[in-house]
Design goal:
Largest sheet: 8 strands, parallel, barrel
Distance between the termini: 30 Å
Number of helices: 11
Structural class: alpha/beta
Number of domains: 1
CATH class: Alpha Beta
Helix content: 25-40%
């Protein structure tokens, strides 16, 4: 498999995300932004009494076995492809996530060949967006169609978009994200009805924006909600945001919102989580901030807590760790030119050792 260089100049290859935007590049006060903020506020105001009742009455479901729920994101960099296969097999994980940028459809054969290396695993493909996706929606539709056509023979599960509520990923407000979600689902309905689509794709705990993507009148119908539920800035899974919301309560509120959704089925997948590691720049931009980064042993402990809590609630069908090889937040450090399995690697593996497939 030939190594490809497909990163645009605004992409940070170390942390696998767009570079942070300068303040001058962010548009916060505009007519469209203010109109969308008004819709968010109105949605929350109208639904809050019902949502509060749903939250209060929501009970835990039967435990989802952690070995069935746990998933792992992998990067298609061919430099480590043999190691990827060996480690996935060693861990025992069967649920894998791979990102395919909408702007890289010319290299789809690369991703398809890579996915074929894992015949016993089920993939979730995350289709990434950028600003061009918003500005040229016919191109976005064409790119998604190409990905659906070429990848669907080996994978039926697609997550549309990523971190819509972060402007560096292309959307300036949730209304633009909703439009991209609508286009993808309309294409699915007319040409690819067999596909399983996940939407919302909101990162961190931002319930107002999540509610807006789950309840609106755009007409799309998604099969499950994808939540990038990072909690690292609160420390452990038991740390509280706003003095109340620990991980379990964040999941409970998200599940309660999903029960109210008029355009997403009542199925919840956590498609990204991790804890960035201290002193690992440039692989994680937050490495110099102890408040939101941890040492390797603490990362392993927090990983175990997170997956255990998600499993015990019974509300979560899948939870994916982002990602296998990355020294800034992954399970394996490759900086020395060899692969060093960190404590989190063995903590993740123990989820399957304790609960064999």
């Amino acid at each position: 498999m030939t190594k490809i260089n497909n990163n645009p100049d605004w992409w940070d290859p170390y942390s696998c995300q767009p570079y942070k935007l300068q303040d001058s590049d962010k548009t916060r006060v505009s007519a469209s932004n203010l109109w969308e903020y008004g819709k968010i506020a109105a949605t929350a105001l109208i639904l809050s009494p019902i949502l509060a009742t749903r939250y209060a009455l929501l009970e835990k479901k039967p435990i989802v076995p952690v070995n069935e729920m746990a998933g792992l994101s992998i990067n298609s960099n061919p430099e480590w492809q043999t190691a990827h296969v060996e480690m996935v097999e060693e861990i025992g994980v069967k649920n894998l996530l791979i990102r395919i940028p909408s702007w890289d459809t010319k290299n789809l054969d690369h991703y398809i060949k890579y996915m074929a290396l894992f015949p016993d695993c089920e993939f979730l493909v995350n289709i990434l967006q950028n600003r061009d996706s918003v500005d040229n929606q016919s191109q976005w539709k064409s790119q998604i169609k190409t990905i659906f056509e070429e990848v669907s023979p080996i994978c039926k599960n697609f997550k549309i978009g990523n971190a819509f509520n972060r402007s560096k990923w292309g959307c300036r407000h949730s209304g633009e994200a909703i439009k991209l979600l609508e286009i993808a689902d309309r294409l699915r309905k007319t040409e690819f009805p067999e596909l399983f689509l996940l939407g919302s794709s909101i990162i961190d705990f931002e319930p107002l924006i999540t509610l807006r993507t789950l309840f609106n009148f755009s007409g799309y119908q998604y099969d499950a909600c994808a939540s990038l539920m990072y909690i690292n800035r609160r420390g452990s899974a038991f740390g509280k945001q706003y003095g109340y919301f620990d991980l379990e309560r964040k999941l409970k509120l998200t599940k309660a919102m999903l029960e109210l959704s008029n355009n997403t089925k009542n199925r919840l997948w956590i498609t990204e989580t991790n804890w960035p590691l201290l002193n690992t720049k440039p692989y994680t931009p937050n490495s110099g901030h102890p408040r939101s980064t941890v040492d390797e042993q603490t990362q392993a402990e927090y990983l175990t807590d997170y997956f255990t809590i998600a499993s015990m609630t019974g509300w979560i069908e899948r939870t994916y760790w982002w990602q296998l090889i990355n020294p800034g937040y992954g399970l394996v450090d490759h900086r020395s030119g060899t692969l060093r399995k960190m404590p989190s690697y063995f903590a993740f593996k123990s989820l399957f050792d304790t609960h064999p497939n």
